[in-house]
# Entry
Amino acid sequence: METTEKRVKAPQKPYNAKEVTRTRGFKSNNSWPAVNLKFLVDFMQALDINLGDLERQGVGHHTSLAFLFKKDNMLLSLAHKIVEAFGYKMTVILKDMAEEETSGIAIANEEELVNMYSQGSRLGFLDMYMRMHKISQRKVANDLQKSPGTISYWFKTDDIYISNLKEFSDCYHSEIVIRISKENH
# Structure
C-alpha cells in the first residue's frame, strides 16, 4: 500500500526593492529597468521599502506591483497611493525646459500655484500647463496621435499613466518635476 505525502510549499519571501530584479524578466545586472518609475524606485530604496511592505500597507498585491515595476509604468494615482501610504506627499509639476518665465509666473511660485490649483484634482498640474500654453485637448490628441476620447478620459478619471505623462512632456518640451515631501499631520 502506497502512502501519499502532502507537498508543502515553502513560504514565499516578499519581494525586496533591491532583490526583485533577480526574478524572471529583469535584467541580470540587478538593476531596475526604471525610466518612468525611477522616482518611485529611488523613494522605495531610500526608505528601504519592499513590495511586501506595499502589500501590507494595502497598496496592492506584491506580484501585481512587481509586474508594474517590470513594465515600468503605472497610473499616477497608484504612485500617489504608494507615497501616501508611508506618510509622504507627492507634487508633480510640468516645467518648461527654457529658463524663461512662462506667462509671468515665476518658477519659485509655481509649486505653490500648482498646490493651490490642484487641491481637488490629481491632474491639476497638467490642466494648468495646458491653459498656460493655450493647448487644447484636441491639439494634444493630434500631437500625441491619440484619440480625443483618450485625452478627455484622463481628465474625467483624473488619472493618467506615467508613460503618457512622459510622452506629453517630451512632445511639449517640458520637464516633469516630482517632489516627495513628508506630510505634516
Notes: Confidence is low (pLDDT under 50) at residues 20-30, 99-108.
